[in-house]
Write a structure and sequence with these properties.
This protein is about 0% helix and about 70% strand. It contains two helices and 36 strands. The model has no long low-confidence stretch (mean pLDDT about 90).
């Protein structure tokens, strides 16, 4: 365990200092899934950077795993996961071949879910000017199925002066059915009580093709250049149908989405330990969507975000360092039928790190930046949600200003490490849901004047009494507040606990966390559930078996959710089988040919971006 670093096995994420940890393997960007499958004998060393500089500049924190060199041989591996409690499976095949300085890697796999019995019971009030209307939803039945397929081919060539990598990905995500039927009761002074049968079904089909090229070049005089380019083409289908008795709201949407990301970094390391990094980043999106159904329209939107910054890292007194990162960003977008919007703004970060003793660590961090809204927020489409509710995008949203301030103190006592953190996050001109009444309809859109403030104080401890056991405990207090668009706040205490036991070929992992209460970006106050799990692994040669249990004693855990706004109120309870008691069995096997090789799993992000404004 790394002190202050938390790993969520279920979500596949690594976090530290209140944000995500960037993962690299041999200096190339990777992710948790690939890191998870590495064997200890494949790893040469691990670098953890709580104050990343150089090529890692801009990361919240970074982990770089350096692997042992291989020049011949290869492997083929398979793994299969099957879950009980709800139907879920994940099956993968991987092959890697080494030929001198070149690696060839092929990945492929499928996963699926089929879940019946999810439940959402909701009471809502719509404050129409003439007469408020209450609606009560009681779930009568639900069923959902989805499946995903992926394939990836990668070539990497490396020598002492440079590394080149090319990657091609194909993804397919499909939800053939996401159906829920309700017993819906309307009530009001004029309409009395009226009971109807209602249902909602969503069908999606998404395809994505991606080509990525990247290179790392070592120059003379301690200089380096990193460059990467990724081009993605996606085709997204979204079908929505809501019915009440003989009435229906229908939407059939087809979107073509194109994305380009380019990044170039220049790094200069000086002999005195100081460094200079210059980064240029470009993100360009083009979305063209055809909406048909109850509300038909054609939407075309392009966005561009360019970020340029320079970071100077200076060593101070042999026990401290200072990072200064001034920069700027340009954000330009245009919705068909609207004028082009251009936003320019400064960016800056300052990080001071002090290590007064070998076992102590202090960091002060402040940053200011900006971002533009999600694609789906900015289009001009209208979607009919039900008989009296619509959802609209807003092409006139503002640039969001982001502010962060953080202080961290860590100290180690032989086998015990302690860390305290105080974190502040702020956002101004944040797009938030906004409700109003128009022509006997409740309309939800997005208001770009929102303000968000978060304060998080936490303590964590990592205890390693022996080589066969370690434990990490943490907890803190979190406060969230939204204002201007809505005045909402929530606060909670929280705690987490994890423990690992290693006994020869066996390992046991325990995880647990308390419920939390927060206000989401949907302005919904959400109270989460207890989460705990236990898993065990057995490894022998090329075989590996893992069995795990998630929330083994929770049969019907509910999330409580509330919305309290001037024209719309709701109170609901959501139950999902994925949160209740379940178990899984995972088996894997690999076959080496030639010399011993390292084994890692797919590092594919299996999400497909979309700019579609969705009714649900």
């Amino acid at each position: 365990m790394i002190p202050g670093v938390s790993v969520d096995v279920a979500k596949g994420s690594v976090r530290a200092f209140g944000g995500s940890v960037a993962i690299y393997i041999d200096g190339m960007k990777s992710d948790y899934r690939e890191m998870q499958q590495l064997r200890p004998e494949d790893v040469e060393s691990v670098q953890y950077m709580e104050a990343p500089t150089g090529k890692y500049a801009g990361d919240n924190a970074s982990i770089n795993i350096i692997l042992k060199k291989r020049t011949s041989g290869g492997y083929v591996s398979i793994d299969a996961l099957q879950r009980l409690g709800y139907l879920n499976g994940d099956y993968n095949l991987a092959a890697r071949y080494y030929n001198k300085n070149t690696q060839y890697t092929l990945y492929g796999g499928i996963d699926y879910n089929k879940i019946n019995g999810n439940r959402l019971d909701k009471q809502e009030t719509i404050l129409f000017p003439l007469e408020p209307i209450d609606r009560n939803y009681a779930t009568a039945g639900s069923r959902m199925s989805n499946n995903n397929q992926y394939a990836q081919f990668r070539i990497r060539n490396k020598n002492d002066r440079r590394t080149l990598r090319a990657t091609f990905n194909f993804l397919r995500n499909a939800t053939p059915e996401d159906f829920t039927s309700y017993i819906l009761t309307y009530s009001g002074n004029t309409i009395g009580n009226r009971r109807v049968d209602a249902s909602q079904n969503t069908v999606t089909r998404n395809y994505q093709y991606n080509l990525g090229l990247s290179g790392n070049f070592k120059l003379n005089h301690n200089q380096m250049i990193d460059a990467s380019a990724n081009a993605t083409a996606s085709r997204n289908h979204y079908d929505y149908c809501y019915t009440e008795n003989n009435e229906a709201a229908i939407s059939n949407t087809l979107e073509n989405l194109y994305n380009f990301q380019g990044n170039i970094n220049y790094i200069k390391n000086f002999n005195n330990g100081n460094s200079l990094t210059i980064k240029l980043f470009e993100l360009f999106n083009v979305s063209s969507a055809d909406y048909r159904g109850t509300d038909s329209s054609w939407q075309h939107l392009w966005t561009s975000e360019t970020i340029l910054f320079a970071e100077y890292a200076r060593q101070l007194w042999g026990i401290a360092s200072l990072r200064l990162t001034p920069g700027m960003s340009a954000q330009v977008y245009r919705q068909h039928g609207h004028d082009r919007v251009s936003k320019f703004g400064p960016r800056a970060q300052i990080v001071f790190t002090l290590k007064p003793a070998r076992n102590q660590f202090i960091q002060l961090n402040g940053s200011y930046g900006n971002s533009y809204p999600e694609l789906s927020y900015m289009n001009g489409a209208t979607q009919q949600v039900d008989m009296i509710q619509q959802k609209k995008g807003n092409p006139d949203l503002k640039q969001t200003k982001l502010t962060t301030a953080m202080g961290v103190y860590g100290i180690g006592f032989k086998r015990l490490n302690l860390q305290a953190m105080l974190l502040y996050n702020g956002a101004d001109d944040l797009p938030l849901p906004s409700y109003f009444i128009e022509k006997d309809m409740l309309v939800q859109t997005f208001d770009g004047n929102g303000i968000w403030r978060q304060l998080n104080g936490s303590l964590s401890a990592t205890w390693t009494p022996s080589n066969i056991f370690n434990m990490q405990a943490g907890g803190g207090y979190m406060y969230n507040r939204y204002s201007r668009v809505a005045d909402l706040s929530a606060a909670c205490w929280y705690a987490t606990l994890s423990a690992n036991i290693y006994l020869k070929d066996f390992a046991i992992f325990l995880r647990g966390s308390t419920p939390q209460k927060a206000v989401s970006l949907e302005l919904e106050t959400v109270k989460t559930i207890w989460q705990y799990s236990i898993s065990a692994t057995w490894s022998k040669g090329p075989f590996r078996a893992e069995v795990g249990f998630n929330n083994p004693f929770l049969k019907h855990p509910y999330y409580d959710m509330n919305i309290l706004l001037p024209v719309y109120n709701s109170s609901s309870r959501r139950y999902s089988k994925t949160d209740s008691q379940s178990a899984y069995l995972k088996l894997s096997y690999y076959f080496d040919f030639g010399k011993k090789t390292k084994h890692d799993k797919v590092n594919i992000d299996k999400t497909i971006n979309s700019g579609i404004l969705k009714a649900n």
